[in-house]
Amino acid sequence: MASIRERKRKDGSAIYQVRWVQGGRGGTEECEKFGDPVAAEEFKKLVDAHSQQWPPGWIKGRGFVEEQTVDGDMPLVEWAHRYVDRLTGIDERTRRDYKRDVDNHFAIIQHTQPSGRVVPATIANVTAADIQDWVRAQEAGERDPDNAEAWLRRQASPKSIANRHGLLSAIVQAAIEADPPLRSKNCCLGTRLPRTDDGIDEEMCFLEHDEYARIASEIEDVHARDLADWLVGTGMRWGEATALQVRDVNLAQGTVGVHRSWKRAAPGAGGPAYFLGPPKTRKARRIVAVTEAQMEMLRRRMAGKRPEDLLFETRLGKSWRHDNFWRRRWVPAVEAAIAKGLPKRPRIHDLRHTHVAWLIAQRIPLPAIQARLGHESITTTVDRYGHLVQALDGEIRAAVETVMGASAAAPGIRRVV
Fold first, then answer.
1. Closest C-alpha to 175, from 166, 183, 165
2. Cα(337)–Cα(280) distance, rounded to whole angstroms?
3. How many CB atoms lie within 10 A of CB 162?
4. How confident is the model at residue 267, as a pLDDT?
5. In 3D, which of 199, 240, 195, 196 has the Cα closest to residue 355?
6. Of 167, 176, 180, 256, which has fewest CB within 10 angstroms of its CB?
7. How many CB atoms lie within 10 A of CB 283?
8. φ and ψ at 29, to 5 degrees?
């Protein structure tokens, strides 16, 4: 129950403090001041009537002040769905993934009014504090109150939180740029997100040459072995490599063009579950140089095929599916290699990471690796693989010493020590 305390001022007048514990035992102590006992008693009754919470619409020190409403305001999730529906330049799988994030993760965002009252989030009322609360809720997850071992919502990784936050920021920005505007400021700007380098990074697995050879030696199917060798030897994404066609090979130049990738069809769309579409990004459409040994393998696989035929197919001449390759070819080979001493358990996508590690070990610059992998931005390449460039520290020191030595030798230039 709330209580009232009378405090005397130096001038002899009195103030009346209404004090209570927000939400009851275990909550924070709250206080509101009044100049007369009648007003204090009325407010005390309101606090008690609302289960020791600030009365809805009450702002500390000001009283009942309703938040201004904005014409055209709507629930945050509804606005987000409209935004995603109107996006252009994305495939239906990406649109479906965005909507899943909206429904599963944006729906938990709530707005806390200045009075402390929690109300549903709308595109106009959500604040920076609400976004920070949302980020913390994703970090913590939510346990099942009836089963301490179960989760209602699992803890999210820093990368997942950052991806969702980026999508939300774009959605809020669209509300700022709407006509008429629904907001004046992007509440996502300045949010402190979890660091993606906290803890031990277990997402990427890099194989040494002999470690990959152990796995490859366990793959008996020549078609699967060719595909695995291609993935680790070019760094292509699974969807790009398995979509390559005979016409993509330039025998004269010793290159292969990446012009398409497998896409997952939307549920209920009818027809095949996968279809050939454009690569992941604009820069993913690229030309990849290959070795003579790789060209020899391609010539073998091109024999007797038409220009539109796939380069990498199963033993039965069908297109590869990730799940099929994973279960029937990759996992058995990895498990066999582990039984013989392999200390790692790589995924198929780790062949792409491994390819990068091998290039960096050979002193290939990151911009060249960015182009080979088809990363849209050099930032992506640096963020994922920059820590592997430590092997170049000796070369960097030598280069700096050479430059500084040349500067010292130049007339009129004092050497800095």
1. 183
2. 32
3. 17
4. 62
5. 240
6. 180
7. 15
8. -80, 130
pLDDT at 414: 47
> What is the DSSP track for 122-161?
BTTT--HHHHHHHHHHHHH-EEETTEEEEEEEPPPPHHHH
Q: Model's pTM, two decimal places? A: 0.60
- Residue 317, pLDDT score: 94
**Other CB atoms within 10 A of residue 355 CB:** 22
Whole-number pLDDT of residue 56:
73
pLDDT along the chain (417 residues), means of 10: 90 91 82 92 90 80 72 93 91 86 95 82 94 94 88 89 94 94 92 70 81 96 97 96 97 95 72 81 91 96 96 95 95 97 95 91 88 84 72 60 60 46
Residue boundaries of the structural domains of the chain: 3-53, 76-176, 209-349
Gyration radius of the chain's alpha carbons: 30
Give the length of the chain.
417
Number of C-beta neighbours around residue 1 at 10 A = 9
Tell me what pLDDT residue 344 has. Answer: 93
Do residues 123 and 182 touch, judged by C-beta distance below 8 A?
Answer: yes
**Reduced to 3 states, what is the DSSP secondary structure of residue 362?**
coil
Q: Supply the pLDDT for residue 279.
A: 86
* β-strand pairing of 249-250 with 255-258: antiparallel
Q: 209-349: what CATH class?
A: mainly alpha
Q: How far apart are CA 232 and CA 206, in angstroms?
A: 11
Place of tokens 């020190």: 61
Strand partners, 263: 275
Is the Cβ–Cβ distance between 110 and 119 less than 8 Å? yes
Query: 273: number of CA atoms within 13 Å, CB side?
Result: 4
* DSSP code per residue over 74-115: -BHHHHHHHHHHH--S--HHHHHHHHHHHHHTGGG-EEE-TT
- Which is it for strands 249-250 and 147-153: parallel, antiparallel or unpaired? unpaired
Q: What token pair was written down for 61?
A: 């020190």
Cis preceding linkage at 332, omega within 30: no
* Residue 373: count of CB within 10 angstroms of its CB: 23
The whole-angstrom separation of Cα 51 and Cα 47 is 7
